[in-house]
Request: fold
Amino acid sequence: MSNTVLQSEEDSLNVTSETQALQELPAGGRDPERFELQEVWYPVHYIEDLDKSQPTRFTLLERDIVLWWDKNAQTWRAFADQCPHRLAPLSEGRINESGWLECPYHGWAFSGTGKCEVIPQQREGGKAEVSQRACVDSLPTTVRQGLLFVYAGRAENAAQVKVPIVDVLEEDSEGWVCLNTFRDIPYDALTLIENVLDPSHIPYTHHRTVGNRANVSAVELEVVESGKWGFKGTWAEGPRKGTLGRQDTTFIAPGLMWHDLTSKQFGRTLTVVYATPTRKGECRLFARFPFKFSSKLPGLFLKLTPRWYSHLNQNHVLEDDQIFLHYQERYLEKFGGSANFNKAFYLPTKADLFVYQLHTWINQYKVEAFPGEALSPALPKEVLLDRYHSHTEKCGSCRPALRNLQRLRLGLAVVTAVIWALLPLLVVIQSQVSVLTVAICSLGVLLSGGIWLGLGNLERRFYQGRETPPRNLPQKGKR
Reply:
């Protein structure tokens, strides 16, 4: 996870001082009775996980796009991931010496606006590249709070639609320490939002990770404000039987929510989740945990924790509910989806009020990301618990950490093998070698072997989650 103090930043292709002066448009389009999921800014990557030297592929609302750094304009770009020539994915290409995105198939090259600059196969003096058909579709981008956002809808609207950020971090930016993680999740974005809006599942689902069954109590939620934009609510008693104080919740439609909690023990803590829809039954989660501690020591500890190590632990928490949510949305689909949530769900307590409010919003504003599409058959457990493809290979901290760990393990194995092989020879040649020396060398070999096995267990955590969640493990001292 990122151990950094939050900073506000903006680097937009389309947002200029002139366009910012235009009248603001609501997210989700102009129609007051419908929320268009395309007319929204979506986060697609943490900036620290992007490589400026090469293009990155992403899928947004089933549209493949390519993200790349335009060194000429010093900004991030998002293009449709198709070369207009023969539809080869530009994400398989490179950023060439001129700073243009080059197609891997025939070398057509595109500058930051999507304009074709080079067609190598045409004769000198040819002008085929000036045709509009030679251009690539370009999507608006902006960078805010360390995230790269892409506007999925009509480009001319982008500058007038507010970027969904956590406003409180902008209002009071000093002193925050923020942990960040992300993961590609095998269920819909709105299923993820429904899950994280619900505070009452924490003691059970996340028992032994970030929850405890002993902290269960009645949960009385209240919605204080709502509209097409989302809703705000509060939990007056708050978590842990009220020992931490009131918790306020904000949902910014369609894919951002945060809980805000201030306690005397820990200071102020936010739990922020973005859900970016990629395909039917899939989304990318961005989780952020800004802290403003009442003392400096906890913040110092977080800053010293390697980001990759924090990611291992956060993946563990995400896997607590990964499997049953994958099945839950398939069961809901059999009832007809969110339109019939009142029939599918039995919600007798106010603990489910935010869930009720979310589905009411979905139905009231006719929200549908992938109309007419059905969910795929359920995936096997080992696929649902995959970490490498859903996180590690895309993470700028975990990917190199895994590579370094593998090198360390290989080096340790080689050194151990050499010492083990030379030890008998050393005893034969050097008759004066003491028993103590032999014992120390043998102990060193055994210790190295133990470290090698321990590193192997750590390495596996980059690839796969645990099949049995901590909540289901036997309690100590009980069978």
